[in-house]
């Protein structure tokens, strides 16, 4: 009986909260994607910076 009552009131608690819940449903995934893209770019930049110091330039003056 308690579980039926809890599930019946759950949509009432989530629906029509003045718009902030809809903003979270849209804004939270967007912010998560932006954060993951920022993190990925940071990791790529760090990897390319670290790899750049170990790479030697090809010898372009040598003719085969």
The coarse overall form would be: rod-shaped
Oligomer: single chain
Kindly state the mean pLDDT as a whole number?
A: 77
Low-pLDDT segments: none
Number of discrete helical segments: 2
Rounded Rg: 26 Å
Percent of residues in helices: over 70%
Describe the structure in your own words.
There is one protein chain. With 64 residues, the protein is mostly helical. It has a domain at 18-52. It is 72% helix and 0% strand. The protein has helices at residues 2-14, 20-52. The model has no long low-confidence stretch (mean pLDDT 77).
Summarize the model shown.
The chain has 64 residues and is mainly α. It has 2 helices and no strands.
Topology of helices and strands:
Elements: H1 2-14, H2 20-52
Features:
64 residues; single chain; mainly alpha; 0% strand
């Amino acid at each position: 009986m308690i579980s039926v009552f809890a599930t019946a009131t759950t949509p009432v608690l989530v629906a029509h909260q003045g718009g902030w819940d809809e903003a979270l449903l849209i804004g939270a995934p967007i912010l998560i994607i932006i954060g993951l893209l920022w993190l990925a770019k940071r990791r790529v930049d760090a990897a390319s910076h670290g790899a750049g110091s170990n790479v030697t330039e090809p010898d372009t003056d040598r003719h085969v």
